[in-house]
Amino acid sequence: MSTQLKDALETLKESGVRITPQRHAILEYLIQTMTHPTADDIYKALEGKFPNMSVATVYNNLRVFREAGLVKELTYGDASSRFDFVTTHHYHVICEECGKIVDFHYPGLNEVEDLASHVTGFKISHHRMETYGTCPDCVKSTKH
Ligand SMILES: [Zn+2]
Ligand SMILES: [Zn+2]
C-alpha cells in the first residue's frame, strides 16, 4: 500500500468516515491515475469489481473525500467535474483538443494572493490558474 493511500485512510479515520471497500478502491484509483478522472471514469474503471456500485455512489464518495480535504473537484462550465487527489499544490495544463489535464509544479504565485488581498482587502483563500494548449498526442495526430 502506498504511503499516500495510508495517509489518506488515516485522514478519513480521523474525520470519522467509515472506510468501505468501495471507498478504499476509489481512493486507490485516484492516487494511481494521473488523468483527473470524472465520476463516470472512476465508475467505469471499478464497476467490474463492484457490480452493485452506481455512478451516484461514486459521486457521493468523492464528496465525502472532498469534505475531508483529500480530493479537489475541478469544475469546467457544463462539462462534468474532474477529480484530483490533493497532494502538493500544483497547476494544470489542459488540452483543448482532447481535454487531458496534466499537472505541473511552479513555485511562488503566492504573491498574487498577497497582492489581491492588499489591493482589495479580501481575505484570500486560494487561487486557480490554468494553462491551455494542445497536448503532444494531439499535436502528433493533427500532423498527419
Ligand atoms: Zn490532447
Ligand atoms: Zn492536478
UniProtKB/TrEMBL annotation:
It holds the Pfam family FUR. Transmembrane segments: none annotated. It comes from the Bacteria. Gene3D superfamilies: 3.30.1490.190, Winged helix-like DNA-binding domain superfamily/Winged helix DNA-binding domain. Signal peptide: none annotated. Keywords: DNA-binding, Repressor, Transcription, Transcription regulation, Zinc. This is Peroxide-responsive transcriptional repressor PerR. It comes from Bacillus salitolerans. The lineage of its organism: Bacteria, Bacillati, Bacillota, Bacilli, Bacillales.
